[in-house]
Amino acid sequence: MKELLTFILLITHISLIKAQDTSRVLTQKPINTLDLGIGLGYTALQSKIISPFVFEGFGVPFHLTYRQKKRLKKQYIQVLFQNQALNSPFNARMDYTTGHLLYGYLRQVKKWQNGSLFLGGEWQTQISNRVIPNFINAQFFSVLHSLNFAGQLEYHLKKHQIEAQVALAVLGKRPDSNFITTISDPKDNAWSYMTSGKVETLPQYFNGTVRLTYCPPSRLKFLRWRFEYVGNYHQFRQYNFFGVLQHQLLTSLTYQF
Amino acid sequence: MKKNLCATLLALILNGCSPLFFNDPPPNTPENVFNHFVQQIEQNYSGKDVRAVNWDSLVRVYRPKISTQTTDNQLIETMSAMILPFGDYHLTYATPIRRYIPAADFDFPKPDSLPNFINDIAVANGLKTNLETYERLFTYAKTGSNIGYIKIPTFNVNLSPDYFDTILEQLKDTKGLIIDVRQNSGGQAGLAAMMAGRLVKTTEIYTYERTKIGPGKTDYSDFLSFTLKPSGEWQYNKPIVVLTSEYTYSAAIAFVLMLRTQAHITTLGTATGDGLTKGVDRELPNGWRLQVPSELGYLPDKTVVEGSGGVKPKIAVMISAKDRKNEIDTILNSALELLK
Fold first, then answer.
1. Assign residue A137 a region: left if phi > 0, alpha if psi is -120 to 50, beta otherwise?
2. Distance (Å, rounded) from C-alpha B152 to C-alpha B255?
3. In what order do the strands lie in the sheet with B176-180?
4. I want to staple A161 with a disulfide (CB 3.0 to 4.6 A). Which of A157, A202, A215, B242 is the partner?
């Protein structure tokens, strides 16, 4: 009995220590930041239903990102827009407009002296519209939803901050069928873009993103620069292969509040 | 120069990993062009599923004729011969030499041979003397017996719905209206809807569409309905006769479908063409463009239009060979008689 009492006291003591620790963490004030960024983007696109060739070109991406960081968790919401003119070897020009809404949630799972490992997930809704002006009726609007697994390494060297993040799609869904067509299937109402379609995963659907970020030290506490490389590749394989590779170099001004 | 060099270098670096992500385009050989052409039609052409054409047999006949020695002209002849049996104006291709128009080989009256003459009855009604053109596109008139006539030759992007509104305003007080779309091979369905909206009384579903969602014969999306409602400041609610012919095609068929739902509108003439849904251009490995439709269009009762012989008019009237020879537009005459 005495041993049991000692054990219960010991467990309670450990729990209290943890609780105190957790309480300190929970009461830590979150750091909120807002990034406004611009950059240079490169896109290569192959949609075999429209052409056997790869269309390539450059564009200027813009983004607005809200981030919230507590000691153990990170959340972010990003709206990104990019418009670019892509060309194929036979000089067919494609106007390709893309945008995405991204929500991510990461939780710290390991911590070292200068770095941390975060794991979590992302929800991404990508919209794109492609038009080949010289081709008759070659306009295609597409929406793609993705549920991604994400992992991030955060590293601090003095006041420099470096992040390396990888996100891989677990599931993907297009409101149209996953048979890639040249014609977007118009919906009776906007909600149908969320509900219709078929959920796909590997190997038919792949979506991977790599983000490398560098934030240099800043003299101002509330304002700093953020330099970012984003590489994304997504594809649907079945019947009419469709793949898009994007590289983006982004420069953002980050306002902390 | 420096800027271009940097951009080229950057593209080369970025493109270096492309083979990992993309399929190499097939080399530009006659066999590859032919195979790509066949694959596009097999997987993505909706007409193949409803038109009575034995595609496999066509491929069996023509594939052995293609080799590395095949010239562009021979390839053009082969593709034309394979496309022609479908009788689909939307299944076509364009080369730097020419755009192939299957309609030119179809066995129905060419647009040029359709009646462009004004017949005796029309003359007696004053149609000929009153005939005017608007913006070189519309032809319109008011007959002596107060019947309006508007010929809409196209729904292409050069046409403004304002032109139609202006003409309609001038024909507002007529006792009936003839809309002639016999030589209209289509254009923008949106434009057709803007004009049709001025002529309808009630909101109706006029067509359904289904899109290909797989290579199989039955792999299609659900029916998607299209509705037209009255538009503009006022609508022309008096009797209307819409003249149709085999050359009425694409968006012009959609226009006829929009109007034929209405009790005060009668379609008259011969059946329209049977290509309602749009064709979409794609690229072949030699840079030629192939236009293939991937949708099927339906009447409100869900009867498919493609491959059906067209939308039949409520009153069927043909121009006999004798009348054609004598330049008598029997169809227009019948419309004038109906509205008299």
1. left
2. 11
3. B132-134, B138-142, B147-151, B176-180, B240-244, B265-269, B315-316
4. A215
- pLDDT of B37 reads 96
Q: Chain B partners of A183 at a C-beta cutoff of 8 Å? A: 211, 278, 280, 294-295
Residue type, A13: H
Distance CA B262, CA B202 (A): 7
**A9, pLDDT greater than 50:** no
Q: What mean pLDDT value characterizes chain A?
A: 84
How sure is the predictor about B120, in pLDDT bands with cuts at 50, 70 and 90?
A: low
Q: Which residues of A touch B285 (CB under 8 A)?
A: 52
- ipTM of the prediction: 0.78
pTM: 0.81
Q: Say which range, A141-155, B62-76, B95-109, B181-195, has the weakest mean pLDDT.
A: B95-109
Buried residues in B23-57 as b, exposed as e (16+ CB within 10 A): eebbeeebebbbbbbbbbbebbbbbbbbbebebee
Closest CA–CA distance from residue B85 to any residue of chain A (Å): 22
- How distant is the Cα of B119 from the closest Cα of chain A, in angstroms? 38
Among B10, B21, B281, whose Cβ lies nearest the Cβ of A135?
B281
Beta strands at A31-47 and A55-69: parallel, antiparallel or unpaired: antiparallel
Q: For an interface test with B, give the residue of A56, A131, A185, A249 to mutate (most B CBs within 10 A).
A: A185
